[in-house]
Amino acid sequence: MFETFNLWVVHAADWIFGWMLFLPRDLALFSVALLTSASLTLVRKWTTDQDWLHQAAADEARLGQLRKEAMRRGDRDAVKRHKETVVLIKMRAMRFEGKPLLLALIPVAILATWAFSRLAYVPAHLNEPVEVRACVPRSDIGKLAHLVPVPGIEAVDGWIQPIVEDQPAAISGLWDRTGVWIGSHMRQLLHIQPRPVKTDGMAVWHVVIHDSLPHELRIRYSGRTYPAAFVAGTRYYETPDMLFPDAPLQAIRVALKPMRLFDFVGGIDWILLPPWLTAYLLIAIPLVTMLRKFLHVA
Description:
alpha+beta, 6-stranded antiparallel sheet, 4-stranded antiparallel sheet, 12 strands, elongated
């Protein structure tokens, strides 16, 4: 049910945001972040009492100056009084925070849902090998899995592959190495035990698509057939991970390249942020501040 609703939202949003897929991926991600920031800023401008908020900001600034002067004079009563007044202003200003966030939640959620399905990965290219993995329990190592031949698709290393032991992904690149270093030190600081590396069994194919038609990969394993949608040479990509709970074959994973801003900004694994979302937040958060200053939004 949720997957159907999510698919409906994405296809509906294509009519509004699909033009961004014609842009370079970095620029498309920047556009999504800009639209998010603009939504948050404009909704706040239209749904809050800007005159009151601007006056409150001016009062806070003036009270800050008065508090510093009182501190220089050694007037503790005045310092306390100015500080309490600032706290009172901040508490009253909080009543303006809920409504704009609630109203902006819908457009921002639609944008984020669309970006996850359209910008999180780089679509596969025609005539370039893409790795496809079938994930099975470790106890099945040594068995065979069969990728069914499909017109328009070539299995570079053969249609039948053995189940072998999965290997953890190698860490490469300055961003990823830095993230691993920070994550390990944060776990030590917070006394969090590292998660054990779980290695299952897997069968691996390298497939090449020679046309831009939508295809269905079908993997036969343990008496059952498991489907996974796959397309190359288009602006779109199909969901790269197909899960089959409580089945002998647990998942099919198409190894699409994650979208990395400037081909550098990766994810933050220790807080479970994928690369596209990391870049999205790095762009959107400063843009909110910049737009609020440019549009004089308190």
